[in-house]
């Protein structure tokens, strides 16, 4: 097999914390590693007792400042999103300390949670400030994810899928439109809930953008395929066909197919690759 692109490295939270403290003098204390997530995050505490979450930001300092401003707008409108408490420019990227929201990751995903997330996403409508429209990366590789090279090099099945993805990318529409706030990884692992199951937070806003909030429903449908393997999700498929034009659904589906198959090739097993190929292929 031709050599595949490397996986995205896991976050070494203590090393990043040391870098941020040396760079800024913030005096942050390490509290613990955050559970879940593909790359990782850490819980930290400010000297004044405030709790935060430390991650390495996706993008440069100017891009992350736009993200922080967009989240401030969303929070002012009552959405349960975190404030960015600090952006620390580092030699190899940006350290992000964001507000730690109340609640915890849901113990399980079910239809009630999915419907609550769908309803909450409606509040993203028309509230995006001057943000860039995120690319679907159907004709070129993304920055660390949605890599075409993985599918080109893996096997004949992934090359066929990549051919379809590029065909979609050459068609219309060629990308998102709209003025909604877009969460690019909208799934149950990126929400927090209280003891009653009410959503108290939406986290992981890397790659925030302006476009179509309904893109998040396709992301959520892909996640539901894994998190609710035995559930009847016919209702969700019917919802997607109702709220999205066929060509738009095809565009979003192609992006998610590329994202999931590439990530599985580089980070998971051959069984995972087959699983996503069977679900995502047209």
UniProtKB/TrEMBL annotation:
Protein's recorded name = Aminoglycoside phosphotransferase domain-containing protein
Q: Superkingdom of the source? A: Bacteria
Q: Which InterPro entries match?
A: AGP_Transferase, Aminoglycoside_PTrfase, Kinase-like_dom_sf
**Gene3D superfamilies the record matches:** 3.90.1200.10
Q: Where is the Aminoglycoside phosphotransferase domain?
A: 43-219
């Amino acid at each position: 097999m031709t050599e595949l692109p490397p996986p995205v490295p896991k976050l070494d939270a203590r090393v990043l914390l040391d870098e941020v403290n040396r760079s800024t003098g913030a005096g942050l204390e390490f509290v613990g590693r955050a559970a879940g997530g593909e790359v990782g995050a850490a819980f930290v505490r400010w000297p004044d007792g405030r709790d935060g979450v430390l991650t390495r930001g996706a993008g440069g300092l100017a891009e992350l400042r736009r993200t922080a401003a967009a989240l401030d707008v969303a929070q002012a409108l009552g959405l349960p999103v975190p404030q960015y408490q600090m952006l620390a420019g580092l030699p190899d990227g940006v350290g992000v300390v964001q507000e730690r929201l109340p609640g915890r990751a849901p113990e399980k995903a079910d239809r009630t949670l999915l419907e609550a997330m769908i309803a909450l996403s409606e509040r993203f409508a028309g509230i995006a400030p001057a943000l860039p429209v995120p690319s679907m990366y159907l004709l070129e590789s993304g920055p660390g994810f949605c890599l075409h090279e993985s599918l080109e090099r893996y096997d004949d099945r992934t090359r066929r899928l990549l051919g379809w993805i590029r065909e979609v990318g050459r068609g219309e529409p060629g990308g998102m439109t709209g003025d909604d706030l877009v969460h690019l990884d909208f799934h149950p692992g990126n929400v927090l809930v209280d003891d009653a199951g009410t959503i108290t937070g939406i986290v992981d806003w890397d790659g925030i953008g302006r476009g179509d909030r309904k893109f998040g429903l396709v992301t959520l449908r892909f996640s539901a395929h894994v998190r609710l393997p035995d559930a009847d999700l016919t209702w969700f498929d019917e919802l997607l066909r109702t709220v999205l034009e066929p060509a738009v659904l095809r565009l979003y589906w192609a992006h998610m197919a590329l994202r999931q198959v590439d990530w599985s090739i580089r980070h998971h097993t051959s069984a995972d690759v087959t699983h996503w190929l069977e679900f995502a292929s047209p």
